[in-house]
Amino acid sequence: MRGAVRGVVLVLLGVWLALPAVAAAQPPSNPLSPAFPQPTVQTQTTTTSVSTIQTSATAGSGSAFSGSSALFIAIGAVVVLGGISYFIWRDSRKPRPKPRKLSQTEKRRRKRGRAR
Question: Is 15 helix (H, G, I), strand (E, B) or coil?
Fold first, then answer.
């Protein structure tokens, strides 16, 4: 039994030590960067050729997380957590149900089971 536990611990330790090496082998990536490179659009004029990069997101387009939406989320979280704690508190204060009265046969059966 001890040998099996020791073997499992050694395997888990080896896997744990190998994880950073696997993570370091992957190329670094930024999860916020776009998955594909932005397309370049070439516009031709009569005198020169200029390449421009078109971006779809601008600073202030309204898709950003604003302060008022953060406030509404915080208030909602407080309300939900407050409601949960209130119902837990109310449930814990309920009186316990009284034990039922035992029948005569149940009393005799329990009395027989007692040590003398």
Answer: helix
Helix or strand or coil: residue 88? helix
Model confidence pLDDT, tens digit, residues 85-116: 999 999 888 787 778 888 898 888 888 887 65
Q: Which are the contacts of 50, defined by CB distance < 8 A and separation ≥ 6?
A: 42, 43
* Three-state secondary structure call for residue 36: coil
- Spell out where 1-116 has E strands: 40-44, 49-53
CA separation for the pair 30, 32 (Å, rounded): 5
Phi/psi of residue 42, each to 5°? Answer: -100, 125
Q: CA nearest 50: which of 58, 59, 42?
A: 42
Tokens of 39: 């397309």
Distances from the Cα of 12 to the Cαs of 15, 19, 25, 53, in angstroms?
5, 11, 20, 49
Query: Per residue in 55-80, pLDDT tens?
Result: 555 555 556 788 888 999 999 999 99
